[in-house]
Protein backbone atom coordinates (compact mmCIF):
# COMPACT_ATOMS: atom_id res chain seq x y z
CA UNK A 1 0.00 0.00 0.00
CA UNK A 2 1.25 3.45 -0.79
CA UNK A 3 1.91 5.61 2.26
CA UNK A 4 -0.87 8.03 3.10
CA UNK A 5 -0.13 11.47 4.46
CA UNK A 6 -1.62 11.42 7.92
CA UNK A 7 -0.14 13.60 10.62
CA UNK A 8 2.25 15.38 8.28
CA UNK A 9 2.31 18.92 6.96
CA UNK A 10 0.35 17.71 3.97
CA UNK A 11 -2.33 16.49 6.33
CA UNK A 12 -2.78 19.99 7.66
CA UNK A 13 -2.57 21.56 4.23
CA UNK A 14 -5.36 19.22 3.25
CA UNK A 15 -7.46 20.23 6.26
CA UNK A 16 -6.80 23.91 5.57
CA UNK A 17 -7.81 23.51 1.95
CA UNK A 18 -10.98 21.89 3.15
CA UNK A 19 -11.70 24.78 5.49
CA UNK A 20 -10.89 27.34 2.81
CA UNK A 21 -13.14 25.61 0.33
CA UNK A 22 -15.95 25.59 2.89
CA UNK A 23 -15.52 29.37 3.31
CA UNK A 24 -15.66 29.97 -0.40
CA UNK A 25 -18.62 27.72 -0.56
CA UNK A 26 -20.46 29.65 2.11
CA UNK A 27 -19.69 32.95 0.41
CA UNK A 28 -21.01 31.50 -2.81
CA UNK A 29 -24.35 30.92 -1.12
CA UNK A 30 -23.72 27.47 0.36
CA UNK A 31 -25.30 26.72 3.71
CA UNK A 32 -22.60 24.63 5.32
CA UNK A 33 -20.99 25.41 8.64
CA UNK A 34 -17.32 26.42 8.59
CA UNK A 35 -14.98 23.99 10.29
CA UNK A 36 -13.68 25.54 13.50
CA UNK A 37 -9.90 25.71 13.63
CA UNK A 38 -8.48 24.21 16.80
CA UNK A 39 -7.09 27.63 17.70
CA UNK A 40 -10.56 29.20 17.48
CA UNK A 41 -12.00 26.95 20.15
CA UNK A 42 -11.89 28.70 23.52
CA UNK A 43 -10.60 26.26 26.16
CA UNK A 44 -13.75 26.54 28.27
CA UNK A 45 -15.98 25.80 25.28
CA UNK A 46 -14.94 22.17 24.97
CA UNK A 47 -17.41 19.77 26.51
CA UNK A 48 -15.44 17.03 28.22
CA UNK A 49 -17.49 16.26 31.36
CA UNK A 50 -20.92 15.70 29.93
CA UNK A 51 -23.48 13.73 31.89
CA UNK A 52 -25.32 12.29 28.90
CA UNK A 53 -29.12 12.07 29.10
CA UNK A 54 -29.04 9.05 26.82
CA UNK A 55 -26.47 7.01 24.89
CA UNK A 56 -24.40 9.28 22.62
CA UNK A 57 -22.99 6.17 20.88
CA UNK A 58 -26.40 5.24 19.47
CA UNK A 59 -24.93 4.98 15.95
CA UNK A 60 -22.33 2.43 17.00
CA UNK A 61 -18.67 2.24 16.11
CA UNK A 62 -16.80 1.34 12.93
CA UNK A 63 -13.33 0.92 11.53
CA UNK A 64 -12.02 1.06 8.00
CA UNK A 65 -9.11 1.68 5.61
CA UNK A 66 -6.92 -1.00 7.20
CA UNK A 67 -3.20 -0.87 6.45
CA UNK A 68 -0.36 -3.02 7.77
CA UNK A 69 0.23 -0.53 10.61
CA UNK A 70 -3.17 0.95 11.44
CA UNK A 71 -6.69 1.84 10.44
CA UNK A 72 -9.35 4.52 10.91
CA UNK A 73 -11.64 4.25 13.95
CA UNK A 74 -15.00 5.96 13.65
CA UNK A 75 -17.94 7.00 15.75
CA UNK A 76 -20.48 9.82 15.67
CA UNK A 77 -22.13 11.20 18.77
CA UNK A 78 -25.92 11.29 18.55
CA UNK A 79 -28.48 11.11 21.31
CA UNK A 80 -31.17 11.74 18.69
CA UNK A 81 -30.07 10.09 15.42
CA UNK A 82 -32.77 11.72 13.27
CA UNK A 83 -32.51 15.25 14.73
CA UNK A 84 -28.95 16.29 13.79
CA UNK A 85 -27.66 14.18 16.65
CA UNK A 86 -29.48 16.18 19.33
CA UNK A 87 -26.13 16.81 21.02
CA UNK A 88 -25.14 19.77 23.20
CA UNK A 89 -23.72 22.67 21.17
CA UNK A 90 -20.01 23.09 20.60
CA UNK A 91 -17.07 20.70 20.38
CA UNK A 92 -17.23 17.58 22.53
CA UNK A 93 -14.20 15.65 23.68
CA UNK A 94 -14.05 11.96 22.82
CA UNK A 95 -11.47 9.51 24.18
CA UNK A 96 -10.51 6.46 22.12
CA UNK A 97 -8.77 3.31 23.26
CA UNK A 98 -7.26 0.38 21.42
CA UNK A 99 -6.26 -2.98 22.83
CA UNK A 100 -5.00 -6.34 21.65
CA UNK A 101 -7.50 -8.29 23.71
CA UNK A 102 -11.29 -8.50 23.34
CA UNK A 103 -12.01 -7.49 26.95
CA UNK A 104 -9.70 -4.46 26.61
CA UNK A 105 -7.80 -5.11 29.85
CA UNK A 106 -4.57 -3.65 28.48
CA UNK A 107 -4.80 -0.44 26.53
CA UNK A 108 -2.09 -0.30 23.84
CA UNK A 109 -2.98 3.09 22.47
CA UNK A 110 -5.39 5.86 23.38
CA UNK A 111 -6.00 9.50 22.69
CA UNK A 112 -8.40 12.40 22.76
CA UNK A 113 -10.14 13.82 19.75
CA UNK A 114 -12.66 16.61 19.30
CA UNK A 115 -16.10 15.86 17.88
CA UNK A 116 -17.14 19.12 16.22
CA UNK A 117 -20.52 20.31 15.04
CA UNK A 118 -18.92 21.16 11.68
CA UNK A 119 -18.45 17.44 11.04
CA UNK A 120 -21.74 16.36 12.60
CA UNK A 121 -19.99 15.34 15.83
CA UNK A 122 -18.28 12.50 14.00
CA UNK A 123 -14.74 11.43 14.82
CA UNK A 124 -12.21 9.72 12.55
CA UNK A 125 -9.14 8.52 14.42
CA UNK A 126 -6.15 7.49 12.31
CA UNK A 127 -4.26 4.86 14.32
CA UNK A 128 -0.58 4.26 13.47
CA UNK A 129 2.24 2.05 14.70
CA UNK A 130 0.43 -1.27 15.09
CA UNK A 131 1.70 -4.74 14.24
CA UNK A 132 0.73 -6.10 10.85
CA UNK A 133 -1.80 -8.86 10.23
CA UNK A 134 -3.52 -9.05 13.59
CA UNK A 135 -6.75 -8.31 15.37
CA UNK A 136 -7.34 -5.35 17.70
CA UNK A 137 -10.28 -4.10 19.75
CA UNK A 138 -11.35 -0.49 20.35
CA UNK A 139 -13.93 1.69 22.06
CA UNK A 140 -14.76 5.32 22.73
CA UNK A 141 -15.71 7.32 25.84
CA UNK A 142 -17.39 10.71 26.12
CA UNK A 143 -18.27 12.24 29.48
CA UNK A 144 -19.94 9.48 31.47
CA UNK A 145 -20.74 7.32 28.43
CA UNK A 146 -18.81 4.49 26.77
CA UNK A 147 -19.35 2.87 23.41
CA UNK A 148 -19.55 -0.81 22.61
CA UNK A 149 -16.27 -2.56 21.81
CA UNK A 150 -15.46 -2.94 18.12
CA UNK A 151 -13.09 -5.41 16.51
CA UNK A 152 -10.67 -4.44 13.78
CA UNK A 153 -7.46 -5.63 12.22
CA UNK A 154 -4.35 -4.63 10.34
CA UNK A 155 -3.50 -6.11 6.97
CA UNK A 156 -0.40 -8.24 6.31
CA UNK A 157 2.81 -6.32 5.54
CA UNK A 158 3.44 -5.30 1.96
CA UNK A 159 5.97 -8.11 1.43
CA UNK A 160 3.96 -10.74 3.28
CA UNK A 161 2.16 -13.51 1.40
CA UNK A 162 -0.52 -14.95 3.70
CA UNK A 163 -2.36 -18.22 3.17
CA UNK A 164 -5.86 -16.87 3.22
CA UNK A 165 -8.13 -13.84 3.15
CA UNK A 166 -11.83 -14.09 3.90
CA UNK A 167 -14.13 -11.20 3.20
CA UNK A 168 -17.73 -10.43 2.34
CA UNK A 169 -19.28 -7.76 0.18
CA UNK A 170 -22.69 -6.13 0.33
CA UNK A 171 -24.67 -3.33 -1.31
CA UNK A 172 -28.09 -1.68 -1.50
CA UNK A 173 -29.75 -1.50 1.89
CA UNK A 174 -33.06 0.29 1.40
CA UNK A 175 -34.34 0.79 4.94
CA UNK A 176 -38.03 0.63 4.10
CA UNK A 177 -37.79 -2.38 1.77
CA UNK A 178 -36.60 -4.88 4.32
CA UNK A 179 -34.69 -5.85 7.41
CA UNK A 180 -30.90 -6.16 7.35
CA UNK A 181 -31.03 -9.86 8.32
CA UNK A 182 -28.17 -10.64 5.94
CA UNK A 183 -25.75 -8.81 8.27
CA UNK A 184 -26.90 -10.95 11.19
CA UNK A 185 -25.57 -13.96 9.26
CA UNK A 186 -22.52 -12.19 7.90
CA UNK A 187 -21.09 -11.73 11.40
CA UNK A 188 -21.23 -15.47 12.05
CA UNK A 189 -18.67 -16.06 9.30
CA UNK A 190 -14.95 -15.67 9.89
CA UNK A 191 -14.14 -12.50 7.97
CA UNK A 192 -11.09 -10.25 7.82
CA UNK A 193 -12.80 -7.49 5.90
CA UNK A 194 -16.21 -6.27 4.74
CA UNK A 195 -16.78 -4.29 1.54
CA UNK A 196 -19.79 -2.10 0.88
CA UNK A 197 -20.25 -1.28 -2.80
CA UNK A 198 -22.85 1.45 -2.53
CA UNK A 199 -26.46 2.42 -1.87
CA UNK A 200 -25.69 2.50 1.84
CA UNK A 201 -28.64 4.90 2.23
CA UNK A 202 -31.48 5.85 -0.11
CA UNK A 203 -32.40 9.48 -0.59
CA UNK A 204 -36.14 9.16 -1.18
CA UNK A 205 -39.23 10.27 0.75
CA UNK A 206 -41.22 7.73 2.79
CA UNK A 207 -42.86 5.14 0.56
CA UNK A 208 -45.76 2.78 1.09
CA UNK A 209 -43.86 0.24 3.18
CA UNK A 210 -45.46 -0.57 6.50
CA UNK A 211 -42.29 -2.32 7.68
CA UNK A 212 -40.06 0.72 8.33
CA UNK A 213 -40.31 4.36 7.30
CA UNK A 214 -37.91 6.95 6.01
CA UNK A 215 -37.71 9.87 8.42
CA UNK A 216 -38.23 12.80 6.03
CA UNK A 217 -39.11 13.89 2.49
CA UNK A 218 -36.38 13.47 -0.16
CA UNK A 219 -33.10 14.60 1.36
CA UNK A 220 -31.36 17.74 0.09
CA UNK A 221 -29.72 19.71 2.92
CA UNK A 222 -26.71 18.62 4.95
CA UNK A 223 -28.94 18.04 7.98
CA UNK A 224 -31.34 15.95 5.84
CA UNK A 225 -28.47 13.68 4.79
CA UNK A 226 -27.10 13.51 8.35
CA UNK A 227 -30.48 12.50 9.71
CA UNK A 228 -30.93 9.84 7.03
CA UNK A 229 -27.59 8.30 8.03
CA UNK A 230 -28.76 8.56 11.63
CA UNK A 231 -31.86 6.53 10.74
CA UNK A 232 -29.96 3.85 8.80
CA UNK A 233 -27.11 3.62 11.28
CA UNK A 234 -29.57 3.02 14.12
CA UNK A 235 -30.07 -0.45 12.67
CA UNK A 236 -28.59 -2.94 15.13
CA UNK A 237 -27.59 -5.53 12.54
CA UNK A 238 -25.72 -2.93 10.52
CA UNK A 239 -23.98 -1.73 13.70
CA UNK A 240 -22.97 -5.28 14.60
CA UNK A 241 -21.42 -5.76 11.14
CA UNK A 242 -19.43 -2.52 11.50
CA UNK A 243 -18.19 -3.59 14.95
CA UNK A 244 -17.18 -7.00 13.57
CA UNK A 245 -14.39 -6.15 11.11
CA UNK A 246 -12.88 -3.22 9.18
CA UNK A 247 -14.87 -1.99 6.17
CA UNK A 248 -13.95 -0.60 2.78
CA UNK A 249 -16.76 1.54 1.45
CA UNK A 250 -17.59 3.16 -1.87
CA UNK A 251 -20.81 4.89 -2.80
CA UNK A 252 -23.16 4.37 -5.70
CA UNK A 253 -25.91 6.79 -6.72
CA UNK A 254 -28.39 6.77 -3.83
CA UNK A 255 -25.95 8.24 -1.32
CA UNK A 256 -26.55 11.36 -3.40
CA UNK A 257 -29.34 11.00 -5.98
CA UNK A 258 -30.70 8.18 -8.16
CA UNK A 259 -28.76 7.57 -11.40
CA UNK A 260 -26.64 10.70 -10.99
CA UNK A 261 -23.84 11.07 -13.54
CA UNK A 262 -21.24 13.60 -12.45
CA UNK A 263 -23.15 16.83 -11.86
CA UNK A 264 -26.02 15.84 -14.14
CA UNK A 265 -29.27 14.87 -12.47
CA UNK A 266 -31.54 12.22 -13.96
CA UNK A 267 -34.18 14.97 -13.89
CA UNK A 268 -33.15 17.29 -16.67
CA UNK A 269 -34.79 20.38 -15.18
CA UNK A 270 -32.46 20.40 -12.15
CA UNK A 271 -30.06 23.38 -12.13
CA UNK A 272 -26.47 22.05 -12.05
CA UNK A 273 -25.53 24.71 -9.48
CA UNK A 274 -28.22 23.50 -7.07
CA UNK A 275 -27.18 19.95 -7.84
CA UNK A 276 -23.56 20.78 -6.92
CA UNK A 277 -24.66 22.28 -3.60
CA UNK A 278 -26.70 19.18 -2.89
CA UNK A 279 -23.76 16.95 -3.80
CA UNK A 280 -21.54 18.85 -1.34
CA UNK A 281 -24.10 18.07 1.37
CA UNK A 282 -24.35 14.41 0.34
CA UNK A 283 -20.58 13.93 0.20
CA UNK A 284 -19.95 15.66 3.51
CA UNK A 285 -22.55 13.51 5.27
CA UNK A 286 -21.06 10.42 3.60
CA UNK A 287 -17.61 11.29 4.92
CA UNK A 288 -19.00 12.07 8.37
CA UNK A 289 -20.72 8.71 8.58
CA UNK A 290 -18.10 6.33 7.23
CA UNK A 291 -14.73 5.14 8.57
CA UNK A 292 -12.75 6.96 5.88
CA UNK A 293 -9.32 8.54 6.01
CA UNK A 294 -8.51 12.23 5.69
CA UNK A 295 -7.54 11.62 2.04
CA UNK A 296 -11.27 11.24 1.33
CA UNK A 297 -12.36 14.45 3.07
CA UNK A 298 -14.68 16.30 0.68
CA UNK A 299 -13.55 19.58 -0.84
CA UNK A 300 -16.69 21.49 -1.76
CA UNK A 301 -18.75 19.27 -4.04
CA UNK A 302 -15.80 16.95 -4.78
CA UNK A 303 -14.56 13.98 -2.83
CA UNK A 304 -11.84 11.55 -3.80
CA UNK A 305 -13.12 8.12 -2.94
CA UNK A 306 -11.15 5.92 -5.32
CA UNK A 307 -8.10 4.36 -3.72
CA UNK A 308 -6.23 1.08 -3.35
CA UNK A 309 -5.77 -1.05 -0.27
CA UNK A 310 -3.35 -3.98 -0.21
CA UNK A 311 -3.81 -7.20 1.70
CA UNK A 312 -0.15 -8.15 1.77
CA UNK A 313 0.90 -9.78 -1.48
CA UNK A 314 -2.22 -11.90 -1.65
CA UNK A 315 -4.75 -9.31 -2.82
CA UNK A 316 -5.01 -5.70 -3.76
CA UNK A 317 -8.34 -3.87 -3.67
CA UNK A 318 -8.89 -0.98 -6.06
CA UNK A 319 -12.04 0.73 -4.83
CA UNK A 320 -13.60 2.64 -7.73
CA UNK A 321 -16.02 5.55 -8.07
CA UNK A 322 -18.16 5.10 -11.18
CA UNK A 323 -20.51 8.01 -10.33
CA UNK A 324 -18.59 11.22 -9.75
CA UNK A 325 -16.65 11.48 -13.00
CA UNK A 326 -18.77 9.66 -15.58
CA UNK A 327 -20.26 11.25 -18.67
CA UNK A 328 -24.06 11.37 -18.76
CA UNK A 329 -25.95 8.13 -19.36
CA UNK A 330 -26.43 7.98 -23.14
CA UNK A 331 -29.56 7.54 -25.21
CA UNK A 332 -31.81 9.07 -22.52
CA UNK A 333 -30.94 6.59 -19.73
CA UNK A 334 -32.97 3.42 -19.21
CA UNK A 335 -32.56 0.20 -21.21
CA UNK A 336 -31.67 0.91 -24.84
CA UNK A 337 -29.96 -0.57 -27.87
CA UNK A 338 -26.17 -0.53 -28.04
CA UNK A 339 -25.82 2.37 -30.45
CA UNK A 340 -25.48 6.15 -30.57
CA UNK A 341 -24.08 7.62 -27.37
CA UNK A 342 -23.44 4.20 -25.85
CA UNK A 343 -20.69 3.72 -28.45
CA UNK A 344 -19.31 7.26 -28.23
CA UNK A 345 -15.49 7.07 -28.17
CA UNK A 346 -15.24 10.01 -25.77
CA UNK A 347 -17.65 8.68 -23.14
CA UNK A 348 -16.13 8.01 -19.73
CA UNK A 349 -17.10 5.91 -16.72
CA UNK A 350 -14.19 6.65 -14.38
CA UNK A 351 -13.02 10.02 -15.69
CA UNK A 352 -9.57 10.33 -17.23
CA UNK A 353 -7.65 10.76 -13.95
CA UNK A 354 -9.17 7.78 -12.18
CA UNK A 355 -8.85 5.63 -15.29
CA UNK A 356 -5.15 6.50 -15.65
CA UNK A 357 -4.63 5.86 -11.95
CA UNK A 358 -6.39 2.48 -12.17
CA UNK A 359 -4.46 1.31 -15.21
CA UNK A 360 -1.13 2.35 -13.62
CA UNK A 361 -2.15 0.59 -10.41
CA UNK A 362 -2.97 -2.61 -12.32
CA UNK A 363 0.28 -2.47 -14.26
CA UNK A 364 2.36 -1.99 -11.11
CA UNK A 365 0.46 -4.40 -8.90
CA UNK A 366 2.32 -7.49 -7.78
CA UNK A 367 -0.66 -8.87 -5.92
CA UNK A 368 -1.73 -12.43 -6.50
CA UNK A 369 -5.30 -11.20 -7.03
CA UNK A 370 -6.38 -7.77 -8.22
CA UNK A 371 -9.84 -6.90 -6.98
CA UNK A 372 -11.94 -4.08 -8.40
CA UNK A 373 -14.61 -2.99 -5.89
CA UNK A 374 -17.09 -0.98 -7.92
CA UNK A 375 -20.75 -0.28 -8.56
CA UNK A 376 -22.28 -1.06 -11.95
CA UNK A 377 -22.22 -4.28 -13.99
CA UNK A 378 -19.35 -4.71 -16.44
CA UNK A 379 -20.76 -7.82 -18.18
CA UNK A 380 -22.59 -6.96 -21.42
CA UNK A 381 -25.94 -8.36 -20.37
CA UNK A 382 -28.67 -7.97 -23.01
CA UNK A 383 -32.32 -8.39 -22.11
CA UNK A 384 -34.87 -9.97 -24.45
CA UNK A 385 -33.71 -11.58 -27.65
CA UNK A 386 -32.60 -10.98 -31.21
CA UNK A 387 -32.75 -7.55 -32.81
CA UNK A 388 -34.52 -5.98 -29.86
CA UNK A 389 -31.82 -6.73 -27.26
CA UNK A 390 -31.70 -3.94 -24.70
CA UNK A 391 -28.87 -2.95 -22.39
CA UNK A 392 -28.82 -0.83 -19.24
CA UNK A 393 -27.42 2.59 -20.11
CA UNK A 394 -26.54 3.16 -16.43
CA UNK A 395 -24.11 0.20 -16.45
CA UNK A 396 -20.82 -0.22 -18.33
CA UNK A 397 -22.92 -1.22 -21.36
CA UNK A 398 -23.81 2.46 -21.77
CA UNK A 399 -20.07 3.18 -21.89
CA UNK A 400 -18.73 0.82 -24.53
CA UNK A 401 -15.41 2.57 -25.25
CA UNK A 402 -14.37 2.81 -21.57
CA UNK A 403 -15.40 -0.82 -21.05
CA UNK A 404 -13.25 -1.90 -23.99
CA UNK A 405 -10.31 0.08 -22.56
CA UNK A 406 -10.76 -1.54 -19.14
CA UNK A 407 -11.07 -5.07 -20.52
CA UNK A 408 -8.18 -4.43 -22.92
CA UNK A 409 -6.09 -3.41 -19.93
CA UNK A 410 -7.05 -6.58 -18.06
CA UNK A 411 -6.15 -8.70 -21.10
CA UNK A 412 -2.70 -7.09 -21.37
CA UNK A 413 -1.75 -7.85 -17.78
CA UNK A 414 0.98 -10.34 -17.10
CA UNK A 415 -1.33 -12.39 -14.92
CA UNK A 416 -5.03 -12.86 -15.58
CA UNK A 417 -5.90 -12.33 -11.95
CA UNK A 418 -8.58 -9.63 -11.87
CA UNK A 419 -11.85 -10.18 -10.03
CA UNK A 420 -14.51 -7.50 -10.43
CA UNK A 421 -16.99 -7.04 -7.58
CA UNK A 422 -20.21 -5.18 -8.34
CA UNK A 423 -23.41 -4.05 -6.61
CA UNK A 424 -26.28 -1.78 -7.73
CA UNK A 425 -28.84 -4.07 -9.31
CA UNK A 426 -30.31 -6.00 -6.37
CA UNK A 427 -29.52 -9.39 -7.86
CA UNK A 428 -26.72 -11.94 -7.95
CA UNK A 429 -24.78 -12.62 -11.13
CA UNK A 430 -21.58 -14.49 -11.93
CA UNK A 431 -20.11 -13.39 -15.27
CA UNK A 432 -17.06 -14.17 -17.31
CA UNK A 433 -15.76 -10.96 -18.88
CA UNK A 434 -14.55 -10.83 -22.49
CA UNK A 435 -12.55 -8.16 -24.19
CA UNK A 436 -15.09 -8.37 -27.01
CA UNK A 437 -18.45 -9.85 -26.07
CA UNK A 438 -19.06 -10.62 -29.75
CA UNK A 439 -15.97 -12.84 -29.85
CA UNK A 440 -16.36 -15.32 -27.04
CA UNK A 441 -13.98 -17.77 -28.71
CA UNK A 442 -11.06 -15.59 -27.62
CA UNK A 443 -11.72 -16.61 -24.01
CA UNK A 444 -12.50 -14.52 -20.92
CA UNK A 445 -10.04 -11.98 -19.50
CA UNK A 446 -11.53 -11.65 -16.00
CA UNK A 447 -14.50 -12.67 -13.86
CA UNK A 448 -17.21 -10.56 -12.27
CA UNK A 449 -19.25 -11.32 -9.18
CA UNK A 450 -22.32 -9.11 -8.83
CA UNK A 451 -23.74 -9.20 -5.31
CA UNK A 452 -27.43 -8.81 -4.54
CA UNK A 453 -28.93 -6.27 -2.16
CA UNK A 454 -29.12 -6.52 1.61
CA UNK A 455 -32.78 -5.42 1.52
CA UNK A 456 -33.58 -3.29 -1.57
CA UNK A 457 -36.40 -4.77 -3.62
CA UNK A 458 -38.02 -6.63 -0.73
CA UNK A 459 -38.18 -10.40 -0.41
CA UNK A 460 -36.93 -11.16 -3.93
CA UNK A 461 -37.07 -14.48 -5.78
CA UNK A 462 -34.74 -17.31 -6.69
CA UNK A 463 -35.50 -17.75 -10.41
CA UNK A 464 -36.97 -15.38 -12.98
CA UNK A 465 -39.32 -16.34 -15.82
CA UNK A 466 -36.90 -15.11 -18.50
CA UNK A 467 -34.02 -17.06 -16.97
CA UNK A 468 -33.61 -19.58 -19.80
CA UNK A 469 -33.59 -16.85 -22.44
CA UNK A 470 -31.15 -14.79 -20.38
CA UNK A 471 -28.60 -17.61 -20.25
CA UNK A 472 -29.14 -18.55 -23.90
CA UNK A 473 -28.62 -15.00 -25.14
CA UNK A 474 -25.73 -14.22 -22.76
CA UNK A 475 -23.63 -17.37 -22.50
CA UNK A 476 -21.01 -15.63 -20.34
CA UNK A 477 -23.51 -15.48 -17.44
CA UNK A 478 -23.01 -18.48 -15.19
CA UNK A 479 -25.45 -17.65 -12.41
CA UNK A 480 -28.33 -15.32 -11.72
CA UNK A 481 -30.63 -14.99 -8.74
CA UNK A 482 -32.66 -12.18 -7.20
CA UNK A 483 -32.93 -13.12 -3.55
CA UNK A 484 -31.54 -10.82 -0.85
CA UNK A 485 -28.21 -11.44 0.87
CA UNK A 486 -24.49 -10.90 0.47
CA UNK A 487 -21.48 -12.58 -1.11
CA UNK A 488 -18.64 -14.20 0.77
CA UNK A 489 -15.17 -14.86 -0.68
CA UNK A 490 -12.28 -17.05 0.41
CA UNK A 491 -9.04 -16.15 -1.29
CA UNK A 492 -5.86 -18.24 -1.29
CA UNK A 493 -2.80 -18.13 -3.54
CA UNK A 494 -4.08 -20.84 -5.80
CA UNK A 495 -7.84 -20.33 -5.72
CA UNK A 496 -10.60 -17.82 -5.31
CA UNK A 497 -13.89 -19.15 -3.94
CA UNK A 498 -17.14 -17.22 -4.01
CA UNK A 499 -20.28 -18.14 -2.06
CA UNK A 500 -23.64 -16.52 -2.81
CA UNK A 501 -25.40 -16.34 0.57
CA UNK A 502 -29.10 -15.57 0.52
CA UNK A 503 -31.99 -15.11 2.95
CA UNK A 504 -35.50 -16.21 2.01
CA UNK A 505 -37.27 -13.07 3.21
CA UNK A 506 -36.60 -9.62 4.67
CA UNK A 507 -40.14 -8.52 5.59
CA UNK A 508 -39.89 -10.16 9.01
CA UNK A 509 -36.98 -11.14 11.22
CA UNK A 510 -35.35 -14.52 11.50
CA UNK A 511 -34.77 -15.70 7.92
CA UNK A 512 -32.25 -18.52 7.72
CA UNK A 513 -29.20 -18.32 5.48
CA UNK A 514 -28.67 -20.42 2.38
CA UNK A 515 -25.75 -20.76 0.02
CA UNK A 516 -27.35 -20.56 -3.44
CA UNK A 517 -24.23 -21.00 -5.54
CA UNK A 518 -20.48 -21.47 -5.23
CA UNK A 519 -17.78 -20.72 -7.77
CA UNK A 520 -14.07 -21.39 -7.94
CA UNK A 521 -11.59 -19.36 -9.97
CA UNK A 522 -8.08 -20.69 -10.29
CA UNK A 523 -5.21 -18.27 -10.32
CA UNK A 524 -4.32 -17.05 -13.81
CA UNK A 525 -7.38 -18.80 -15.29
CA UNK A 526 -10.28 -16.33 -15.47
CA UNK A 527 -13.05 -18.89 -15.69
CA UNK A 528 -15.95 -19.71 -13.42
CA UNK A 529 -15.99 -23.27 -12.24
CA UNK A 530 -19.13 -24.39 -10.44
FE1 LIG B 1 -29.61 0.02 -4.99
CA1 LIG C 1 -27.66 2.08 -7.50
Written description of the protein model:
The protein has eight helices and 24 strands. With 530 residues, the chain is of the alpha+beta class. It has two domains: 31-152, Purple acid phosphatase-like, N-terminal (Immunoglobulin-like, Sandwich), CATH 2.60.40.380; 155-529, Alkaline phosphatase D (PhoD) (Purple Acid Phosphatase, chain A, domain 2), CATH 3.60.21. Strands 9, 10, 11, 12, 13, 15, 17, 18, 19, 20, 21, 22, 23 and 24 form a 14-stranded mixed beta sheet that branches. Residues 1-40 have low confidence and may be disordered. Residues 199, 252-254, 424 line the site of calcium ion.
Biggest beta sheet attributes: 14 strands, mixed
**CATH homology group of the largest domain:** Alkaline phosphatase D (PhoD)
**Bound chemical compounds:** fe (iii) ion, calcium ion
The CATH topology name of the largest domain reads Purple Acid Phosphatase, chain A, domain 2
> Strand share of the residues?
25-35%
Overall CATH architecture of the largest domain? 4-Layer Sandwich
End-to-end gap:
33 Å
Q: Give the class-level CATH name of the largest domain.
A: Alpha Beta
Q: What is the tally of helical segments?
A: 8
- Radius of gyration (Å): 22 Å
**Integer tally of domains:** 2
Total count of strands: 24
Look at the helices and sheets and give the structural class.
alpha+beta
List keywords for this structure.
binds fe (iii) ion; alpha+beta; Immunoglobulin-like; disordered N terminus; binds calcium ion; single chain; 14-stranded mixed sheet; Purple Acid Phosphatase, chain A, domain 2; globular
